[in-house]
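Extended Data, panel c. Modelled sequence:
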Amino acid sequence: MESLAGSKISEELLKTLWYKRLLQQVQAILSVSKDTLTNLVEMADKISIYPTDILIINKQDQSQATYCSCENNSRWSSFEASTESLTQQIHKLHT
């Protein structure tokens, strides 16, 4: 971005434009740093390599928040489906 913009746009404006395109989790982590744009880009790249937990907020009740990993969420859905199937099988045995 810097090379495309040249000296026409300040680093602060570039940083703002770039920052808005990041995932919210990455924005939150980088918000505490006052480093240069180049260093922030390197940090964002390193952060993005690792899977992050997603904060899911219930829009109706902002006081409740649940953390879940995307990978664990998929496993949980599979577990729920298996449990439902077993419950139905047990119910059929009793009737």
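The two ends are 68 Å apart (CA to CA). This feature is highlighted in the accompanying rendering.
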